[in-house]
Amino acid sequence: MAAIKRSGCFHKEGHNVGCHVKNNKFMIIFGIIEIILSQIPNFHELSWLSAVAAVMSFGYSTIGLSLSIAKAVGGNQARTSLTGTTVGVDVTSWQKTWNCFEAIGDIAFAYAFSTVLVEIQASPPGFNGTLFLSNKRKDFHSSFGNNTPGNFLTGFGFYEPYWLIDMANVFIIVHLIGAYQVFCQPIFKQVEDRCFNRWPNSSFIKESPPIKLPLFGVYSFSAFRVVWRTGYVILTIVLAMLLPFFNAILGLLGAASFWPLTVYFPIQMHISREQIRAFSWKWIWLNFLVLLCLIVSVLAAAGSIATIVKDLSTYEPFNSVS
């Protein structure tokens, strides 16, 4: 949202103007939307939102890919190298090390398919998102070189055509709205099921009288669901306003979720199901993979934490500016 406002400012005032805007009000708007959507009781009723989010992802990726190709073909080649940023020119050796580890965390977050299985199922049949996004990233690097922004649309790798950039950012907004629900709805369901089992006689938790709402139909109102889900969304938005370090937080979440959810538990389930004998060659190699991925997760977490600590040294709480 802030990027859309800045895009209009750049178009009117020129690309050399700062056009900085504060992000808090846009985070609050996002939070209000998520509070409303979070009140939908059945996750399956949000399947349309997941499908729309998948289409939006394809839309803004296509726009970014097309603009990157156009920039590269235009002959305005940026400085680039096989190993990325240059030590002593772009960054220090330690900065490059931590950035590499953080990037591993970002990749790990994208690889943690088990947490976004529903969104994958909603993707168009035959759509190879991994291949598409890999090719897209290579085109960005060929266009911007070592100065490729962390977010090529909101980081203003492009300025014109501004209306196309705004369209892509609208796609991103819709995608993030859907992605938030895809990640949070399973958490809502798990907590509510636990509470139902823990306090089966609580009217506050159990009662959900039907209410007729205009344009919606009959809605099963639950005071517990409203309080719990609203509180959760408010907490996440406050944390986002307090720590608006998108790539670093993403890397940290990826590092935390990658090893247990994508590596350890699936491999242990495979070993148990296939009854692989302990200390056999297959058992040894599988557990070696588990150990190797654990090391990767630890390094990714270290890089992300180092980036967060560095950013905190110059950051004022609740004063995020784009």
TrEMBL record:
UniProtKB keywords: Amino-acid transport, Membrane, Transmembrane, Transmembrane helix, Transport
Top-level division of the source organism's lineage: Eukaryota
GO CC aspect terms: membrane
Domain Amino acid transporter transmembrane: 2-123, 144-308
InterPro entries: AA_transpt_TM
Single GO BP term: amino acid transport
Membrane-spanning intervals of the chain: 21-40, 46-70, 226-243, 288-309
PANTHER family: OS05G0424000 PROTEIN-RELATED
Protein name, as recorded: Amino acid transporter transmembrane domain-containing protein
